[in-house]
Design brief:
single chain, 465 residues, alpha+beta, six-stranded mixed beta sheet, two-stranded parallel ribbon, 6 helices, 22% helix, globular
Length: 465
């Protein structure tokens, strides 16, 4: 082999090793940072009084917290030298039904840990704003020339939760796929379509989670698992993969071997999934490529129910097709249904309008966003599921089209913001999504022997109690 070619190959090999080493170092930094945030929240929880905590060995609860970091920078050194401290903490897993809601607003409807932590964070922000107006500065704010408070340089906010948020983010594959299953992930082409007739004027494609395929889909195809298309007319094209049955796959529309096989169809008015023949099949948008998924998979299910007025509804079919992804949901509740949106939906809202709320928006120069979302260890977790719940479904429309460009870290003035008539300072944020390896001491057990704690705790870093 010529020396020049040999030298080139050696340089390429060294470059590959360097890239792998850099990724490994970055992964270690992410894990260390996530563990440090988790440990801060766990430590603060353990230092709180016993009142409101679950009974040892008999009850469980969730914990969430908001951490302030001074000098933290994304994708850089996240060592323990950067000052970090917990400013708000919440526990709980309860949400009341409609009949128990108070018309005067003196009863808390939602006592999930994430919501309780955010309430404590608002109390902390009010205290910081008051201090800023009184003294000209506080821990996190300084006075802006326009009379509003502005966050100090290098101050960042990080949201920790001991579990994945309820709702869309908790729809996670149970069995991860191996590298040998990557070949099963096929994409349908428009040239491989067949003609079919539609008897019904409206059909909806109900998608299933695809993040468990271990396939590195491009961002352009990230909308494929959320695409829902309404079909009207007598004829339509259905994309079909010729070797689908040979690889034992089925696509999102529940394809089978023959043209007259059954497909999944969702009735938007009844909110239930029916089975229709080949002549009644729903179709997908030819402009959006949708990956096929193996039939044998299963998912962790959520008790959160889809809002009845939206087109996206759960099919309740076996396995991975039980839930639809990307839908707005109400919090799960035993007995009477709740009226509160799931934590996934509230996270998505905070990721656009900020954590500060409407009143504080009048006193702050810019909205406050969390720079990272960290989930505790020991439970189900999927970065793709959480990203879909708080980012992707804000960027992609139900038909799979993008609202705006994803290339920027912050999308200013996206079509989402325009549709809501939001000022330009609001937009879809891109927090870092991590999981800690540290489990929560009072987390629920897989065997279900513990009961949920009926009490909740909210704590915040303020001098007055």
């Amino acid at each position: 082999m010529p020396y020049g070619l040999y030298g080139m190959l050696k340089k390429m090999e060294q470059s590959t090793d360097i890239n792998k080493s850099a990724k490994s170092v970055e992964s270690d930094m992410d894990t260390n940072f996530a563990n440090e945030i988790a440990e801060l929240c766990y430590s603060k929880y353990m230092n709180l009084p016993k009142t409101g905590k679950p009974k040892e060995g008999r009850e469980w609860t969730h914990v969430a917290g908001i951490v302030v970091a001074d000098g933290w920078q994304r994708r850089s050194d996240r060592s323990s030298n950067v000052p970090k401290y917990v400013v708000a903490l919440g526990t709980g897993s309860k949400c009341i039904g409609k009949s128990k809601m108070s018309p005067t607003g003196d009863i808390l409807n939602d006592s999930h840990a994430e919501v309780m932590a955010r309430r404590g964070f608002l109390r902390y922000l009010y205290d910081q704003v008051l201090m800023t107006y009184q003294t000209g500065s506080s821990e996190i704010f300084k006075c802006f020339s326009g009379g509003k408070c502005v966050v100090k340089n290098n101050i960042t906010f990080h949201f920790f939760t001991s579990h994945v948020p309820c709702g869309d983010a908790s729809i996670i594959p149970k069995v991860p796929f191996s590298e040998n299953d990557v070949g099963l992930c096929l994409k349908c082409g428009t040239e491989q379509s067949v003609q079919c007739h539609a008897r019904h004027s409206t059909c909806l494609c109900v998608s299933a989670p695809t993040e468990h395929l271990n396939c590195n889909f491009s961002r352009g195809n990230a909308a494929s698992e959320m695409a829902v298309q309404t079909m009207q007319g007598e004829e339509c094209n259905v994309s079909r993969q010729a070797n689908c049955n040979k690889r034992k796959c089925c696509n999102i529309e529940w394809c089978d071997e023959e043209n007259d096989s059954k497909y999944m169809k969702a009735n938007s008015s009844a909110g239930r999934a029916n089975m229709c023949s080949g002549k009644e099949r729903s179709v997908m948008n030819n402009n959006v490529q949708r990956p096929e998924v193996p039939v044998s998979g299963d998912i962790y299910r959520t008790g959160a129910k889809c809002l009845p007025f939206q087109s996206l509804q759960d099919s309740h079919l076996p396995g991975a097709y039980y839930h639809v992804v990307g839908a707005l949901r109400t919090k799960p509740g035993r007995g009477e249904p709740t009226q509160s949106l799931s934590c996934s939906d509230k996270f998505a809202r905070w990721n656009v309008v900020g954590l500060q709320g409407a009143l504080l928006s009048l006193l702050l120069n810019e909205p406050l966003y969390f720079q990272s979302v960290i989930v505790g260890g020991g439970g189900p977790f999927s970065e793709m599921s959480l990203k879909r719940a708080i980012i992707d479904r804000l960027i992609y429309q139900p038909n799979g089209r993008k609202n705006s460009s994803e290339d920027k870290e912050m999308d200013r003035g996206s079509s989402l913001s325009e549709g809501l008539s939001l000022p330009s300072k609001y937009g879809v944020h891109y927090p870092l999504i991590l999981q800690s390896t540290l489990p929560f001491k009072h987390a629920p057990m897989p065997n279900g022997v513990k009961q949920p704690c009926a009490s909740s705790i909210v704590w915040c870093k303020v001098p007055q109690r």
